[in-house]
User: Fold these one by one.
Assistant:
Number 1:
Amino acid sequence: MTPLRPELERILPPGRILDRPIDVAAYASDASFYRLVPRAVLRPESVDEVREIFALSHRLRIPMTFRAAGTSLSGQAITDGLLVDLGHGWRGIEPLDGGKRVRVQPGAIGGKVNRTLAAFGSRIGPDPASIDACMMGGILSNNSSGMCCGVAQNSYHTLDSLVFVLPSGAVVDTSAPGAAARFECDQPGLAAGLIALRDDVRRQPALVERIRKKYRIKNTIGYSLNAFLDYDSPLEMLRHLLIGSEGTLAFLAEAVLHTVPDLPVKYTGLLFFRHIEIAAEAVVPLTRAGAAAIELMDRAALRSVQAMPGVPALLATLAPDAAGILVEFQAPAGTPLDTLRAAADAVSARLELVAPPEFTSDPAQQARLWKVRKGMFPAVGAVRKRGTSVIFEDIAVPPDVLAPAALDLQALFRTHGYEDGIIFGHAKDGNLHFVISQSFNDEAAIRQYEAFNRDLVEMVVGKYDGSLKAEHGTGRNMAPFVEAEWGGAAFDIMVRVKSLVDPQGLLNPGVLVNHDPEAHIKDLKSLPEVEAEVDKCIECGFCESLCPSRDLTLTPRQRIVVRRAMERPGADVAALREAYQYDALDTCATDGLCALACPVSIDTGRLTKRLRASMASPAARRVAATAATHFATTQRLVRTSLRASRMAGPLRRLAAGRGPGFGADLPAPAGPLPETRAAGAAAILFPSCVSRTMGPEPGEPLDASVPAAMIAVAARAGVALHIPSGIEQHCCGMPFSSKGYLEAQAIAANATIDTLWGASQQGALPVVIDTSPCAYALTHADGLSDENRARVARMRLLDAVEYFRTSVVPALPLRRRAASVVLHPVCSLVKMGNAPHLSALAAACSHRVFVPPSSGCCGFAGDRGFLFPELTESATRIPAAEVRAVPADGHYSSSRTCEIGMTRATGRPYRSWIQLLAWASGD
C-alpha cells in the first residue's frame, strides 16, 4: 500500500484506485514521446468524487491531470501526480432535437458519437483521424479539427453548453436558467478577473488584430483568446476558454454540441502533379469548386505507401519531385452524383496533372484511395529504426504560402538528418502534418531534436507567421514556444488566465503554459528494445477501444508499455512480472482485433501466445502434442468433461462461492455427426471440434446441431455437402495456439490440411468450415509445412457464413419469418471481412437486423470465458445492455463458445445463424 492510499480511500472505493507498480507503469505514457509515472490512477464516477479529488490535490499539493483516451500526441495526458482516468466511465451520449445537438461525456469515443448520430443524418463537427479511438474529453480539451472541419466546425464554434468543475470545487452548468448571473454572484473574483482580462485585450488594438489573424487559420497553440473578443459575459468567455485548454483549467464533465450534416454522397479522386508548387496552386480552384477535403501529399509521403497492397501502381512511377492531392466532394442525401461529377471534371480539366484523375463513388474504391492518405503515418512507424519514437506534428500557414512552407520543411529534414520525413496535410486549411522518427536514448539524439525544433519555430513563426500547432494541442513540446508565436502581450494574458482559474497551478502543470525553455526536451520517453511487436508499437492507443479486457485489466498498448517498463533501469521487475501474468496474459482474449485498428498492424494477441508458449513447461508441451496427435481421444475426453461439468458446476459454486465458469448452462455433449455421401458433393463440410463436442442448447434435439442443420439447409437449395470420414481426428489447432502450445497447433493444423487436401480432391472442391474462429485459424495457420502452405494457397477454405451467402442462399426459398433479430459478429468473422455476409443472411430472414453499436469481442475466447468469466462479463457489459433494450425473435452468431458467452451476458439465448436460415427456409 502506498502512503497516499488511505487518503484516496476516503474518496474512492479500493477497486477504483490503481497504484500497483503495473498500474502506474501502464499509465505513464500517452501517444506522445514523453513519459511520467503517476503516483496513482483514479477512476471517479461522479462530479462529487471529482470535487473531492480536487480538494485532496490542493490540501496535499499534489498535481493532477485528467485523461480520456490518452491519444494525445503532445504529452497532455500524463503526470507524476494524480492521474484521473475518465476512459472507463463517463461514456454518455444523448442525441437532442432530432440529432441537431448531442450531449456527450468525456469518456465517449468520437466515432461512437457519430455512429449514434448517423440515424439522424448528422455528426459532430470535429473529424480527427483518430476519431475511432479518441474521446470527447480530448476532442474538447484540444479543440480538435480534422480533414473537413476547417476552422468553422471545431468544438469552439459548435459548442452549445458545458458542465464543468473548477479547481475550487465549484460546479457550473452553463445551460441552467440564469447561469450567467449565478456565476457572477457565486464566483465574483473569477468573474471580475475575466472582465478585467477582456478589457485589457480589447484596449490593445494590435493584440485584437493579432488574435483575429491567428484564428483565420487552424491554431491550437495556447488558450482560446478569441473568447475575449467573441463574448462579453464572464461565463461565456470562460466556457470557450475551456475549449482547447488541454485540461489545465477545469474538469469538463459534460458538453452539448451543435451537430453538422453528415453528407453521404461522396465523389473521391486522386490527382498527381509534377511538383508540389503546382499541386499547391490547385488548392484554390478545388476549394472554389466545392471540395470538402483536399489532402496534399509530397513525394516522400507517396513513396512511403507505394508498396502497400491496393494502392495505385502509378505511385511507383512518379518523378522525384511529384506530389499528390486526394480530393473529395460531398453532398447531402438525394443529391445527384452527376452534380459532384460535373464539378470534379470541370476543375480537373483546368489543372496541370501528370496522369488522368481517378475519381470514384464506389465506397470500396473510395476506401482504397483513402488508404493511400491514411497509410502514411503508419508507413513511417512500421519501418523506423528500433528504439526510435514516431513524432507526428502539425503546423499551419496561410494557404497562399503552403508550397514554399512545404519546401522549407523538406529542407529542414535534410539539414537535421531526418531522411525518413514525410509531409501531408489538409491543404485547404494550410495545415501540414509531418512525420519523422527520433531516438531519445542519448544526449546527441536529444540535441538533434532540439535543434530541429528551434529551426522549425523560426520557419513557421518567423518566416510565415503560422501556427506551431494546428490541431494537436500545445502540450509539453510546444509550451516553451507559445510566447514566441503569440508575442509578449498575448502570452501575458494566457499566464493570467491560468493563474486566475487555477491559482495553485496544480491542474496539469507544465502543459500549455511553461516558463522552462527546455521543457520540451525533458521527461522524454526512451524505448528499450524488447520483442519485435513491442518495438514496432508507437503507443498511439488506437487499439484500446477494441480490446475486450480494457475495462478489466490492460489494453494492448498497456501490455506493451509494461513490457518496456520492465526493461527500464530501476523498475520493480519482480512486481511487474507477477502482476503481468493475470493482467496481461491470462486475461488477453488473443482475438487479434487490435491489429485492425493499429496503424502498424501489431497483433498483441500473437505476442501473448508467444509469451504463454515461453512459460509452458516441456512436460506440458509434450502432453499438448500428444493431445493434438490423438485428437479423437482428446475429443471424447472433452465430451466426458462437459457432462461432468454440467453436473458439478452448481456444487462447485455452492462450495467455493465463485469459480471458473463451468456449470449447468453448458450445452450437452454433441451427438454423432450426420452421415453424408462423397458422390455428387458440391463442397466438403469441416465441422469444427467445438461443433463435434458441444451439442445444441439444453432442451433442443441433437439433430439441431450445426453440422446437421448446414447439411439440411444446403440440401433445400440443391447443394450437397460431404463430411469426410475420420474427421473427428482433426482440429484447426486454435485451442492449442491460444494457450501457447505452438508445436501442438502445428501438428493439428498440418494433419487437418493433409486430410482436407485429399477430401477436396486436391482443391477442386471448396472446404466449408462451420464456425468462423476455426475458418480463420485454418486460413491463417502458423507452423504449416511448405507443402501444406502451397496446398492452402490452392484450396478454397471458406467460412460457412460466406459460402452459404454466396452459394446456397441464391437458390434457397426464404421467408422473413422473424420481425427482428440480433447478431453478434465474432472477431474472426470481422477479421475475414465476412460480417456483411452475416448481416445479409439475417436480412433475408428477418424484417429488422440489429447489431449492437458497441458490439465487439465478447472475451469468451475459446476457453477464456470458462476459466476467467470476469473477462466476458467486463467485455460485454455495454453491448449486453444494448441487446437487452431491443425486442427480438432471436439472437445469432457464428461461434459456439461466443454464443455461450453472449447468452450468459445478456440472458438471451444465442444460437448459430444456420438455425435462423433453417427456420426461414423450412415449412
Number 2:
Amino acid sequence: MIGFIRRFNMISLRSASILLILLLAVLVGCTGEATNPILTSPGNLSHRSERYGSGHNIWSSWTIIFEEDTLSVSIISERQAGAHFDVTSLVLPPSCEGCFEITVNSYDPATKILDIDVTLKNPTGLDGRDVRGIFFTDDPGRTIVNADDWTSLWDIPDGQDINPFRAFAKSIPCRVFAPSETYTENYLIKMTHWGAVHYAVDASWPDNCEEPYEISGFTQEIIREDEGSSGAVSVTVSDWLEDTDEVIISAPEITGTEFIELAQVADSTWSVEITNSTGASSGIYPASIKASSEGDGALALYDKVEIEISETHPVLNVLELTPPWLNFTPVGVFVDGNYLYTAGSQNGLHLWDISDPGDPIWVTRVEVEPQVYDVYIENGLAYAIKGGRFDIFDVDPPGEINYLGSLEGFSQYMDIQNGYLFEGGLKIWDIDPWQTAHLVRTVDLELESCVMPTYVTAADGMAYVVVYDQIIGDGGMRIVHADPPETAWLAATVDYYRSVGKIDAENGVGCLTLGDTAIIFDSATGSTITNIGMPASKFGVEIIDGYAYISGTIPAIDPLRDSVQVIDLHVPEEAEIINTIWCGAMLSIARSGNYVYVSSNDEGLYVFEYVPPAEPVLQTIIPSPATRWLAAGDGIAATGNDITVAIADATMPSGPEFISSLKPVQTEHWLWSAAIEGNYLYIAGNYLHIIDISDPGNPILVNSVNTMGDITAIDVSDGYACIVGQSYGFEIIDVDPPEIAYSVGSLELEYRGEDVVVQEDVAYMIDYHYYDSGEFHVIDISDPGSPEIMRTVGNAPGDPIYSTYCLDLFDDYAYVGMGGGATADFLLRIIDISNPADAYILNEIELSQNPDVFCISSGYMFLEWYDPVLENGIKILDLSSPTDPQEVGFFKADRFLSTIAVGGPYLYTASQHGLSIFQLW
C-alpha cells in the first residue's frame, strides 16, 4: 500500500426513488422505447449528479471466471449490496445483446500473461464519458500489466486500495461513449493464480470526470546507484478542467521518504528531481504517482511506473578488455619453431602460436621503444631492431617474452647473424653475450665521399651492403667476406647504373632488385648469373629455401595492391617466376614448412599455404589497419585505414577478434568515415560503399555509389545516408534497398563539411574553414530530393573566430567541439534544438584541450583528453544539466584517438594502436 492513498469511500445509495429514476432511464435507453434522452427528468438527474459529487456512475459489475484448462470464460453478475447501480440484468443477454463480451486471445504459461479483448456497448440512452473498465486486483498480485491508469473508485473488500483500468473511447473527442456505440480494449492480465476476477464499468455523467483523466509520458534521467545521485522525473497530467493542483510520487526504496511533490513546469507537465538517498543498488524499482484536482473531494487518479537505477558510472568500473595487438602493423616477421614473432612499426613485438600454421593465435605483446622495425631470434634470444638501437628479450621457454636490456649507438642500418651485429658502415660487433658487446672488426668499403651505405644484410658468412651515389643517383653493392667476422675483408665491388633495392643470399646464390629487374648473382663474387624482367618496379627481396620472394606493384593490374613474385633459384641459370602471391605491400616474409607468412604494410599478416611450384592458397588474414575511422554496433565493430576494412566480433569482449576484412574497391584511395545501421556497414570515401554484415565473418560489398567525393562524415537513418565532404557539399543518398542506392538530393556549401548527425527529418551539420568561423547548419530533409538549410548558427559579430571539429546530439541539444579562437581557446558549444528552425546557442563551456574527438551515449559525453597528471585518456561528462555539464570520470586510453563510438554497453576507441574495447555499464 502506498502511504499517500486515501481510500475513496463507496458511494452509498441515499434514495430508492433516485435509483428507480436511473433504472427507468437505463431501461428506456436499452430497450429503444425512447429515442431522446432529454425526455427523462432533467431535474432529478441534475440533483443526482450533484448529490453524488463527481458524477461517477457504475454501469455494471461482474465476477469473471477464466478456466485455465479450456481458456473459456464465465460471467456472473454481482448482486450484493456493495455493487451500486447494478443493472446487470439490463446489459447481459437477452436484455442487451453484445453489451459485454470477452474474447480470449492467448495465454503464455512462461510469463503467465492472459491476453483478452473486452468489448462494451453503451446500454443506456445517455452519453457516458470517461468510461473505464476497472480490473480489481487482489493481494496475491494478480493485475493487468497494460493499465492506462489506476483508480480508487468502487473498491471491493479484501482488495488493494487502488485498481488498474483501461479507458474506452479514448480516440473520441471528450472520450464520449455515445448510446449504442461499441468499443473494444485489450487487457493483458498477469495470472499469478486462477479464480474469480472482479470487474466493473465506471462512467461519468453528465460531464467528464472532475479529477484528472490521464497520467502519461513518464520519463526519467539517469540515476546512478551511488548514494546522492539524482535525476529529474517528469510526467504529463491531463485534466479536462485544467485545475490539477497536486501531483506526488512515492518511491521510498529510492528516496527514503513517503512521497515527493512534483512542480508544474508547463501546462500539463510536472517534474521533480529524484535523489537516490538510500543508496539503492542498480535495478528497476516500482513507484506510484497520484494526481488530484481542486474540488474533486476524495477522488484522485493514480499511475504505477518504474524507476531505473543504473550502475555506478564507468569511472569506477571501466575495464579494458582488448589486448592491443589489433593493430600490430607487422614490418618484420620471424619464425622460431611453433612460434611466429612480428615486429610492428607502431605497436611493439608480438608473439603468435602457429601450432596450427594456418591459424596463428595471438599470445602476447611487449612494448619496444623506439618502435621496432625488425626482429631476429637465435639461441633463445630475440633482438628487436630499429635504427641505431635494439632491445634484447629472453624467449626461452618458447611462448614467453621477457625484456633483458638494450644496446644503442649504432648506425641506422644493421643486421644480426650468428651472434654478430653488422652495421651498414661496415662495423662488426660481437654481441654474444650482449652484456659484453664489443667491436671486433671495421671493414673499409672503399666508398667515395658522395657514396653512402643504405642497407645491409648478412647471409652465408657474407655481408652485403647496398650503396648509393648521392650525386649521380647510381647504386651498387659491396660484398664482404665475414667468416670469421674478426678477419672480415672486402671481397667484391659491384656498381650498377640504377639504385639498388634490397639484397638477400642463400647457398651461394644472391638476388637483388634493380628497378623492374631482378638480378640473380654469385653470392661470393657478385657476378651476374641471369636477369629476370619483372612485371613492375620492385623493392623488397628475401630468399627462403631456394626461392626468392620479391615484392612490388603491378600498376596495369592493381595500382593499390602489391604482389609477391616467387622465383625458383634451385637452378640459378634457369631461374624463373613460378608464381604470384597477391597481398598488400610486403615488408617482410617468413616460411615455415608449407606455410608462408607475409607482413603487409597497413594491412596485417597474410598466411598462405604454399608448396612450390603449386599455386599459393590464402589461409587467413589477420588485419592490422592503421585505424582512421570506426563504426560500432551491438557486439560488432568495424575499423580500417585508407583502403582496408576490418570487422571485429565483440560479442565476447573479453576475447574479441577480427573475424573478416576486405577492400571495398581497388580504386578507392581514401576511406574517411563509417556508420553501422541494421545489417549494413556504410563506409565513405570518394564513394559510398555499402557492405552487408548480417554475417560479420563474411562481409559482402553490395554497392559502391558515386558521390560528390572526399566524404568526411556520414550518418544513416530511415533509409537515407546523409554525407558531407571536402567538396563543399551536403548530399542525401537513398540506401533502401542498398543494391540500387542512388543520390537523391544535395546542397552546395560555402566551406567543407566536417560532421553530420541525422534526427528524424532534420540533419545537423558543421562546416570547417581554417581561416574563418565554422558554422552549425540545420537542414530540412523532409523532402530528400530538395534539402534546405532552415537555420544557421555561428559566432556573433566581433566574437573570436572558432573552427568546428565535431558534433553529436543528446535530447534537445547539439554539442559542438570548437577551437582556434584568438587566444587558441577551446569551447564546447551547446545549442538548443528543441525548435530546429529557431536553434540558438544555449551555453559555451571553455576547455583546456581541443574537443575534436567525442561521442555521446546514455546522457554522457566521452571526450578524448590529455592531462599531464592523469595521462592520455577519455574524460566523461554528465549531460544531465545541459547548461552545466559535470565531469564525472576519467580513464586511460591512447592519445590521439582517431574516433570514439559506443555500441551496446561497450566503448570502442580507434587509434594508431588499433581497436580497444572498454566496458561501460
Number 3:
Amino acid sequence: MRSLLLALSLLSLAPGADAHAPSEQSATAMATPTSQAPPPLAALPPMAAESFLALARAPRAEGAIVVTITRDNGSDATQAVAPDARVWQGPLPADWRRITCVGEQSVCLPIDRGASSEALVRLTAYPRATLTASWPAAVAGQTVHVMINRQTAAGDSAFGPARGQWQVLARPDGRFSLDVPQGTLDIRLLANGCAAVYRFDVKAGANTALGPLPCVPGGSIAARVRDSQSGDTVPACVATVRPSGPRVETDSTQRFAQMVAQSATCNAFGFFQTAGLAPGRYAIATDSRAHAPDTAEVEVIADSETSVDLWLTPFRALTVRVSPPVAPDGRPWTVELRTTDSVAEPSRGSVRATVPHGGEVRFSRIPPQEHDIEILTQDEQLMTALTTSLPDGDAPLEIRIPMVRVVGRVTSHNQPVAGASVSVSHGVNQRAFTTDDNGRFTGWMRQPSSEESLSTEVINPGTNTRIVQSVVPRYDGDQTLELEVTLGVSRVLAEVVDQKGQGVSGVTVHLIGRSAPSGTANPRSVMDTKTDASGMATIVGVSPGRYLAYGYHPSGNIQPTEFDVPPESDASVQLHLAGKREHLFEFVSSQGSPLSGATVSIKSDSAMISNHRPVDGLGKVTLQVAENSNRSAVTVWAESQMLWGGCVEIGNGDRTRVTLPPLSTGILRITRPLQIRGNPLLVSDQGAVFLASDLLRWRRTTITERESEDVIEVTGLAAGRYRAVLDQGFLLDTARVVQAACAGAISFDDPSAGTLTPGGVLELKWPAPK
C-alpha cells in the first residue's frame, strides 16, 4: 500500500498532467450533470482490509466524480467523490471485477482486476460541449436521461459498452442543458412518459442545440413464431427488434440501432413480447437452429400493442453435383447458394462450400426457396451463375459447366503489349489473364452461351490506362476460343481546369466511345485514367472516332464534353470541372406535415453529379448539386416504396420546399435479353431519372437471371408513365437525360414506355421491340 500511495502522490503533483481528451479506449459508466449535486454514497458491500482503490485527477479534470465498482456476481456499487478532492482512496470489495468512473468534465480508463488487489485510477479531462434542447410542457420539471455513444475513428464508443449516461432536470418551460464531451455523438434522450428520441451523427461543438424534442408514448410488439409447413410453434427462437428504414442506413445509425435493439427468446409456446418502443417501423429478425432466418416489418403505434404471427421456413438438405468435378487446372470448385430475395433481404444470408474432387457437396441447412447459385474457382473467378428452384425430395441438383480454352493476343501499333492485365467477360462469366512478352495470353473459361461479342478490359502497365472494348471471338472447333485485342494508336491529352483556369490533379477522367468515323456504333469502348499534378491526363491506345469525356473529383465533376480523335494522331481537349454546392431541401406531406424516415436521391442537370441521403426528423436534407445547376431530378424513398419522383427547380437559391402528393405505387418489370448487359435508365413523365443499378444498390429492386433473359423488378414505384432509356455500353450522358426529362422533351409513346397504375404491374421490354 505504501508504494501505491507514493505513486499516487507523484501522479497528483506532476506538472503538465494530461488535461486533454481521453484516449479512444476510455470508458464511462455514469455521470451527473453540473446542475446537480454528487450522488449520495451507496451502501458498499463488506470490504477486505487489504483491497484499496486510489484515485487522482489531472489539474483541469474538475467537478464531482462517480466511481462504479462491479463485483463478480454482476452487482454494482457506486462511490461519490467530492468536486474538490484531488486525491482519494477507499476500500474495495474482495470480489471486485471492474472499476469505471466519470466526472462532469473527465473520464478514466477502465480497470480490470489483475494479480494485484490494489487499483490506481487516473482521471483526464475532455473538451466540453454544451448540449441544449427542449421538451414539450409535459416534461417540465421531470428528469431527462441522456445516453451518448461517442464515436471514434475505429467506429467504437469512447465510453465503452456501458455507454455514457447523464441525467438532468428539465426547467418549467421544458428546456434543459448539460455538458457532454465534444466530438461526433449518437444520442438517445428519454423522459418519463415519452418514447426514446434518437439523434444520430451529432457534431457536438462548444454549444450544440438539438432543438425541440417530441414527446410521444411508447408501444409494444407481441408475436408468435410458427413453422410454415407444420404450423407448430417454434420454442427457443431468438427474435431481435430494431428500428428499420432509412434512419438505420448509415454506419453510425446502424451501430446505434444495434445498441438500442431489444432481443427476446420465445417461450415454450413460441411467444415473445417487447415493450417501450417509440412509434414507427420496426424490423423483427428471427434466429432458429432448425429454420431459415427471416425478417418482418411491423408498425408500432403509441400506447398500443402490435400483434403479429411470424412463419419460419424449415431448413432442408441439398446435394449439389458439379460437372466437370474439378476445374481444368485440377483445383476444386466453390459453390455458393443464396435465396433469390437475399438482395432485398440481406439478413437471409448465403451458404458456401468447397466441392471435393468427386464433384459432389452436401448442404444440410438450406431454405427450400428459389436460389441464386454461383460456381467459383479458388481464386474467386466466377464460372457460372444460375437461378433455379431446388429439386423435390432428396434429388441432387446437377450443374454442368461447359469449359473452353482461351487463346488471345493484345497488340498496339502492330506491336505486342507485354505484362497487360486482360479481363474477358460475357455476362457474369469472367476470367482474368496476363499477357507474356509476346502479348499473348492463354487459359480457360466457361464457354459463352452464344457467339456474341465478348467484353475485354485491358490495363496497360506502361500507361496505367484502362481500355474496355468489345471483341468478336473466333472458334477453333468446340474447344478453343481465339481473341485478337487491338488497341488504338492515337493519344488523348486531356487537361482538367477549375473555374479559375487552374489545373486540377487527381481527377478521374473517363472516355466513352460514341461512334467510329464510319458512323457505326463503337459499343463498350471505355477508357479512364487520372490527372497528374498539372491537371493533365494522357490516355494511350485510343482508336479514332468520337468520344464523350466526363469525370469525378471530390470538389466537383467534369462537365460532359464530346470531341473527335483523328487516326494515328494526338487529340487535345480541355475539360472544365463544375464545382459542387450544398442545397437544402425540405419535404412535407400532402397534409403539410414534415416528412420523416425517408431517403432522397438527386441527379443534377448540368454535370454527372448524383447523391442520396436520409432526411432528418423535420423533413430536411442537404444534398450536393452542380454549382451551375438550375434543375435536378429528385426521387424520395421510404423503406421499399417510392413516395415521389420528379423535376425540381432549384435556381441560385440555397433551399427548396417540396410538397409530396398522396402515396400511390405499383410494380415495374423490365425484361432484357441475357446478352444485353447495359444499365437501363428509367425516366418518368414527372421528370424522375434513375439507373437500374442505383435501385439495386439501394435495395429497391432485384435482378433475376433466367436461361436467356434477365428480369429487373422494381417494387413500390410511384404510379405514372415510365420509359426505359437505352444505356448499352455506357453511352448515355445522364446530365442530358435529366435536362430532357425536366424540359418534357422525352416521348412516352415509345414501345419501351408504359403507364404504371396504382397497385398495378407494368411490363416493359428493353431494348424495345422494333
Number 4:
Amino acid sequence: MPASTDRPSPQAPSRRPRRGSGVLFRAPPSWMTAGLIAVVTLALAVLVWPPPGSAWLEGWLFAFLAPALLTAGLTSPLARVLGGRFEFHRGIFLAFTALLVELPLAAAWRGALDLWPGVVPGVVLLGPFLAAPVFWFRELTLYGVSRPSHGRTLAAALVQPVLQLVGFSFLVAPTEASLASVVVDLALAFVCAVVVLHAADRPIRREFHASGVSLIRPLLDHVGRRDEEATRKLEAFFLRSPVWADLRVDLLAFLRDGRPAATVVLPTVHPGPFAALGSSDLPRKLEGFLGPEAGTVLVPHTPCDHDLDLPSGTEVEQLGSAARELLHSLPPPGRARSSPLVAPYPGSTARAQVFGDVALVVVSQAPAPTDDIAYSVTDRIVAELSRDGGPRPFLVDAHNSYVEDEGDIAYGSPAAEKLLTDARAAIAAALRAARDGPVEVGTARRGGYSIGRDGIAPLGLRALVVRAGGTTTGYVLIDGNNLVAGLRARIVQELERVVDVAEIMTTDNHVVHEVDGGVNPVGERYPTEALVRDAREILEAAKADLAPAEVRFGSKVVPAVRVLGPNYTARLLTSLGDTLAMFANMFPAALVLLLASSLVVALLLR
C-alpha cells in the first residue's frame, strides 16, 4: 500500500502573496467591521456637529451609528425576501464601505462651511446630499452581488440612506426644500447606478451575448459554497459557444501483485478554466472516477493550453469514464526493458525514461520560465516520434518555473523546434541507458494542505519512485499551478539526496486561482523550507515502499468532446479587461456627476 502522511504546519510564509490581482474580495470578520463602523460614524458625527455641545453624541447615535447597524441586520433578510442573497458579513461590510463614501464628503462640507458659511448649504440639506452616494453605492453592489434586478434590490439599497435621513430628522427638522432634495438626489443616484452597470456589462454582452454582472452571485456561491446551481449557471455560460474535439487519454499503470499501485493519467485536457468549473480541479475529479483500485493517482500536466479547457462537468465525466474503462482494459506489458530518467545533453528541455514500449518524456525549460505548451506542438512531437518507430511518447509538461507572462511554447517557434529535437534525443539517450530486468515501484501521498493558506490544491503532494537497472528515479507531483522560479533546482537537489535522479512537477490545477485571482504558484504562499522538507519526506516514504511491479500502458480516444476552443480564453480575458476598464472609468465619473448634480440641487434649494 502507498504511504500516506499529513504535512506539519509551517510557522510562517517565506514570501508575501501578491496583492491586487484578486478578483474576489473576502470581507473581514463582522466584529471587526462593527468596530470600524463605530469609529467612522463617530468621525462623521464630529464633522457634522462638532463639539462642544452634545449634538455630536446624538448625531453619532441616531444619524449614523444606529442606521448603519440596523442596515447591517436588515440587508440580508431583505435581499432574501426579494429573491437574492446577501450574507450578513457582506451586509455589515457594505454598510461600512458606504460610510467611507460619506466621510470625505462630510469633511469637505465642513471645511467649505467654515470658509463660506453664507454660501454652503446647511445641515438640513447635507442629509440628502450624503444619502445619494450611499444609495448609489449600495444599488451598484446589491445589483451585482445579490440579484441583477433593480426591482429586487431597490428596497435593500434604500435601507441605509432612508434610516440615516430619519435619524437626521430627529436632530434637524426637515423642510420642503430638504424633502424635495431627497427625491431628486435619490433619483439621480439611481440613474447614475443604472448607467454604470449598463456600461460595465456591455463588453461581455457584446462578445458573449450574456450578462457578466449576472454571473457575480453564482461565482461567489461556487467559490464559497460549491453550490451546484451556481456551478450549473457558470458552466452554462461556458457552454454557449464550445467547439468539438477528439481527445485522448493516455494511462501508465504500475501493477504490483496484479493490482495498480500507481496510475499516471495524461488526458489531452487543460485543468481550467477556474475554481472547480469544467476541467479545473481535474486531478481530484479523475481520481474520483478511477477510484481506490487505481492506487496512487498522478495527473501531471499534459502539454496543452486553455483551448482544451472543458466547459462543464459533463465533459469531465466523458473523460473520467474513458480513463476508468482504459484502466480495466490495459494490454499486457511490453518488453521488460527500462531506463532511468536521463537527459541527452546539458540544456535539454526534455528528459526521458523508457518502460518497454513507452517513453515517459518530461518537459521543462527551468531555470528559464516554463508554462503552457500549445497542443499543436505536442501533437506534432508525438506524431513525429511515433513515426521514428521507437517507443510511444508519454509527454508531460513539468510546469515548474513560473515567471508571469513568460514560458509559453507556440507552434512553429524556435522553442517548439528545440523541444522536438530535445525529445527525440532524450528518448534515444533513454534507449541507450535501458537495461533488461525487473522494475520496482513505490508511491506515497501527502494531504492536509489549504488552497488559501498554502496555494496547494486538494491532492497535495504525490510521489513515485521507480528502480530500474539498479538506478532509482523519483518524481514528486504537486497539485498546484506552476512553481515559483528558482525553487525547482533547490527541491531537485534535495530529492537527489534520496534517489539517483529526480524531477518536481505541478498539475497546473486552476482551482488555486479562486483565492488569488492569478496563477498563485506553489512556493508563493507555502514556505520554501517546508516545501523542500515535505518533498523530501514524501519521496523517502515512496522509496521505502519499493516493491516489484510491471508496467502497462494504454491509450484511448474520446470522440466528440466539447472544449472551449481556440481564442476563447483570450476573448474572455479581453472582455473582462474591457469590463474592468469601463467600470474603472465610469465609477468615478458617475460619482462626480452625482455629487455635482446633488450639489447644484442643494445650492438651488438652500
